[in-house]
Write a structure and sequence with these properties.
The complex is a heterodimer. By secondary structure, chain A is mostly beta strands. Chain A has no helices and eight strands. Chain A is globular, with a radius of gyration of 13 Å. Chain A starts with about 25 loop residues before the first strand and ends with a strand. By secondary structure, chain B is an alpha/beta fold. Chain B folds into two domains: about 140 residues, Rhodanese-like domain (Oxidized Rhodanese, domain 1), CATH 3.40.250; about 120 residues, 3-Layer(aba) Sandwich (Oxidized Rhodanese, domain 1), CATH 3.40.250.10. Chain B contains eleven helices and nine strands. Chain B has a five-stranded parallel β-sheet. In chain B, strands 7-6-8-9 form a four-stranded parallel β-sheet, covered by helices on one side. In chain B, helix 5 packs across helix 10. The radius of gyration of chain B is 18 Å and the shape is globular. Classes of the chains: A mainly beta, B alpha/beta. At the A-B interface, strand 3, strand 4 and strand 5 of A face helix 6 of B.
Chain lengths: ~100, ~280
């Protein structure tokens, strides 16, 4: 585990100690014109639009959040554009998300 | 307090990359960020391995801080500009730490790495070498650092500001949502604390909100400006961000950061814990 608040490496594979049947995991990719975008600032917003967490997408455009069950919005910022996607994650498990920059 | 005494803009920073006596310092937990590209001329400080004692849970002591800054080539008279990722969390933590050891000429880069990158400003992979200095630190200024007994005594008395996310405050989560939730300590918050997530103080690009907006945010949340304030989070870095806002931007006189934060408080035996929003 990491003892601080820095984001772990953002990659598609889950750490071995994470059991997606016991928590909500939002995982996905930031894309621009279909091409993965690394280095985007990916923000998790709650159902009221309030900021909850932020990570930087990996070189392959991947990101991941561990959240409470609920409705979320994933918003990405990049110098080439911004984008966001709503996610219904009221059920436990792995939820896949794609955020397209425009 | 004047904003330009404690903050520099990205524009100012880019214009002063080569100004003698101005030292840029990137502070991160993930030092690969620096290796992947940093502000030209910036040195780096590793939050975990260089600012923390590697055996006890505490900071490096005064002599350790002197050694660190001497080795980084930072002198007492330098104007230090701190920046980092994570919306400047660890840079704000380092800012508090520089103040703790008496370095007065220190400022934060408004927006940190994020604003710099979103602006498309230059980054380099060249490692910065600075000649060693002989840095002298002061004794810790404990007027800005809170310890656990003082926090317990502050319940229902001082302002306690819990700056974690609402789900951490209520006890649904033990850590921010971008981290695995595997810690073992109790969840919840310190009774009588108000919950003002650190992020309320920041714009989307990582810059701080304007002073009038900040005053409204903390006023509406019930912060009584006439009382002393203690800010806390999980490990003391997000609360450094709020400590910076309350003391350095809004000019509140008695504001402390509780660096033990929830990882200490939530593991104490016998202390009161509150759940729910």
């Amino acid at each position: 585990m990491t003892s601080g608040c820095g984001a772990p490496e953002q990659a598609a594979a889950l750490p071995v100690n994470v059991d997606p049947s016991r928590e909500v995991v939002l995982t996905g990719t930031v894309r621009s014109g279909g091409i993965p975008v690394g280095g985007a600032f990916v923000r998790l917003l709650d159902s009221g639009g309030e900021f909850t967490a932020e990570v930087v997408s990996s070189a392959g455009g991947d990101f991941r959040f561990f959240a409470a069950p609920g409705r979320w919005t994933v918003r990405a910022l990049h110098r080439d554009g911004n984008g966001e996607t709503a996610v219904d994650a009221r059920d436990l498990g792995l939820h896949s998300v794609t955020v397209a920059l425009a | 307090m004047s904003r330009d005494k404690v903050l520099v803009s990205a524009e100012w920073a880019e214009q002063n990359l080569n100004t003698p006596g101005v030292v840029f310092v990137e502070v991160d937990e993930d030092t690969s960020a620096y290796e992947g590209g940093h502000i030209p001329g910036a040195v780096r400080i590793d939050w975990k391995t260089e600012l923390q004692d590697q055996v006890r849970r505490d900071f490096v002591d005064r002599a350790g801080f002197e050694q660190l800054l001497s080795a980084k080539g930072i002198s007492n008279s330098d104007n230090v500009v701190l920046y980092g990722g994570n919306n400047n969390w660890f840079a704000a933590y380092a800012y508090w730490y520089f103040k703790l050891y008496g370095h007065d000429t220190v400022r934060l880069l408004d927006g940190g790495r994020k604003k710099w990158e979103l602006d498309g400003r230059p980054l380099t992979k060249d490692v910065t070498e600075r000649p060693n200095t002989s840095y002298t630190a002061k004794e810790q200024d404990l007027s800005i650092r809170a310890f656990r007994d003082e926090v317990i005594a502050a319940i229902d008395t001082k302002n306690l500001v819990d700056v974690r996310s609402p789900d951490e405050f209520s006890g649904k989560l033990l850590a921010p949502a971008h981290l695995p939730q595997e810690q073992a300590q109790r969840a919840g918050h310190i009774p009588s604390a108000i919950n003002v997530p650190w992020s309320k103080a920041a714009n989307e690009d990582g810059t701080f909100r304007a002073e009038n907006e900040l005053r409204d945010i903390y006023g509406e949340a019930g912060l009584d400006g006439s009382k002393p304030t203690i800010a806390y989070c999980r490990i003391g870095e997000r609360s450094s961000h709020t400590w910076f806002v309350l003391r350095e931007l809004l000019g509140h006189s008695d504001v402390k950061n509780y660096d033990g934060s929830w990882t200490e408080y939530g593991s104490l035996v016998g202390v009161p814990v509150a759940l729910g929003a």
